[in-house]
Amino acid sequence: VPGFSREDVSLTVKEGTLTVDMKRESKKKKATYRLGKNIDQDKIKATCKDGILTITLPVLEPATKTITVAVD
Fold first, then answer.
1. So what's the pLDDT on residue 16?
2. Dihedral angle computed from the Cα positions of residues 12, 51, 44 and 20, in that order, rounded to the nearest 10 degrees
3. Which residue, among 48, 41, 47, 43, has the nearest Cα to 18 in the 3D structure?
4. By three-state DSSP, how is residue 7 classified?
5. What is the mean pLDDT of the chain?
6. Of the candidates 59, 58, 54, 1, which has an alpha carbon nearest to the alpha carbon of residue 30?
7. Tens digits of per-residue pLDDT, 8-25?
8. How many Å separate Cα 23 from the centre of its chain?
9. What number is the average pLDDT over the span 30-56?
10. How many CB atoms lie within 10 A of CB 18?
11. Is the whole model's pTM more than 0.85, yes or no?
12. Residue 59 DSSP label
């Protein structure tokens, strides 16, 4: 995000879509990304340093539930 500071960048997640809004004076940019179902949306993190925006999208742990089925 060259030309934008950390304060100029905002991220939102709604209905499986990540939106990155960048606004500064007369400059505006927007990008949207569709998230996979395996992304833990509550744990998304972002950092912005030296014009580089890094977004961390943690993957949900797969459900490992073991079920024992009785044999008749």
1. 93
2. 20
3. 41
4. helix
5. 90
6. 1
7. 999 999 999 999 999 988
8. 19
9. 93
10. 19
11. no
12. B
Alpha-carbon distance of 22 to 29, in angstroms, equals 5
Interatomic CA distance for residues 44 and 12, integer angstroms: 10
Question: Contact at 8 Å (CB) between 40 and 59?
Answer: yes
Rg of the Cα atoms in the chain? 18
Q: Percentage of the chain with pLDDT > 70?
A: 99
For every residue of 26-57, DSSP letters joined together read: TEEEEEEEEPPTTB-GGG-EEEEETTEEEEE-
Element (H, E) at 23: strand 17-24
Rounded Cα distance between 72 and 54, Å, is 55
